[in-house]
Automatic annotation (TrEMBL):
Residues 10-52 form the FecR N-terminal domain. It comes from the Bacteria. This is Anti-FecI sigma factor FecR. InterPro entries: FecR, FecR_N, Ferrdict_sens_TM. It comes from Comamonas testosteroni (Pseudomonas testosteroni). Pfam families: DUF4880, FecR. Signal peptide: none annotated. Residues 109-204 form the FecR protein domain. Gene3D superfamilies: 2.60.120.1440. GO terms for molecular function: sigma factor antagonist activity.
């Protein structure tokens, strides 16, 4: 699939989410119609995604619940598998299903919605804080204390109740295993890699498809994928700012800043190349991302092209 097609699919996914939201407006309906009319490809993709949405109506509602702590009914897994098979009926629908229908995340033990944070106390008294759009599953058995880190970002502070103190504490991502060595650390899952930031103690990193094993000490950070780990870097001074609901920037490219801000808000937030290299500095409270954008517009030579609240492009003024 070409990069252009993937971009159109990204836009279509956002429009699909808005189209079926309770506050979808007439203005957005008109904007959607204009988007569909941009090309035959736009209309074809929209039609196929609408077909996929229709087919997915057979999925139990418990699977798609986005709000934490609501009871999850057992559901019928055969219905879920049947819907998946239907989605895989064509290559494009299969690609879309894999990208936008994250079954493993929906079935996670704990999840957060976009813009939400959530603190957990595990059975051994360890503390876990989930950042925006994050998901984990937890399994304690006679061999180890395991967190399956499925999406997003978490802060872990380990504890050792007597009945668990001999069991290793492990965080597993698709890229490898991280074993805590009496510690406080942050794990962030990216599309093709994982970043570990150690605040206290040390963490052992073992990439999934490598014999490499390394120990990351307090004040260090490393990015790794399933095959290798990168070079150690010094931990940024505000690496844990998000745990306080803050986004900190120091001479950050506007394009990078908006990409980070996008994690905390629904919809599409784009930076035009004309504004990408502008620099941002400051401490921004994440409880109101609209206000952050307003502040940037007042203090920087930029302009917001806002089709709707959920579709914003930032350009240079």
């Amino acid at each position: 699939m070409s990069a252009i097609d993937a971009s159109i699919l990204d836009e279509a996914a956002q429009w699909l989410a808005r189209r079926h939201a309770s506050d979808f407006s007439e203005a957005e309906q008109a904007e959607l119609a204009r988007w569909r009319s941009r090309s035959a490809t736009h209309e074809e993709i929209w039609q196929r995604i609408e077909q996929l949405k229709f087919r997915m109506d057979s999925v139990p509602s418990a699977v798609g619940m986005a709000v934490l702590d609501r009871p999850r009914a057992a559901g019928n897994r055969r219905q879920i598998l049947r819907a998946s098979a239907l989605a895989l009926a064509t290559p494009m629908l299969g690609w879309f299903s894999c990208r936008y229908l994250p079954w493993h995340i929906w079935n996670a033990d704990f999840r957060t919605a976009t813009g939400e944070r959530r603190e957990l106390t595990l059975a051994d008294n360890s503390q876990v804080l989930l950042n925006t759009a994050s998901a984990i599953s937890v399994q304690f058995d006679g061999k180890e204390r395991l967190i399956q880190h499925l999406a997003g970002e978490i802060l872990v502070e380990t504890a050792h109740l007597s009945e668990y103190k001999t069991l290793p504490f492990v965080v597993q991502t698709a890229d490898g295993r991280l074993q805590a060595l009496g510690t406080k650390f942050i794990v962030r899952k990216h599309a093709r890699s994982t970043t570990l930031s150690v605040l206290q103690g040390a963490v052992q990193v073992m990439p999934a498809h490598s014999r490499q094993s390394l120990v990351v000490q307090a004040g260090e950070q490393v990015n790794f994928d399933a095959y290798k780990a990168g070079a150690f870097t010094s931990l940024p001074s505000h690496a844990d700012a998000w745990t306080r609901g803050v986004l900190y920037a120091e001479n950050m490219r506007l394009a990078d800043f908006l990409e980070e801000l996008q994690r905390y808000r629904e919809g599409i937030l784009r930076c035009d190349p004309s504004a990408a290299e502008l620099l941002v500095s400051g401490t921004f409270h994440l409880r109101d991302t609209d206000r952050i954008l307003e502040l940037l517009a007042r203090t920087m030579p930029i302009h917001r092209q806002q089709r709707t609240r959920y579709w914003i492009t930032v350009t240079r003024s």
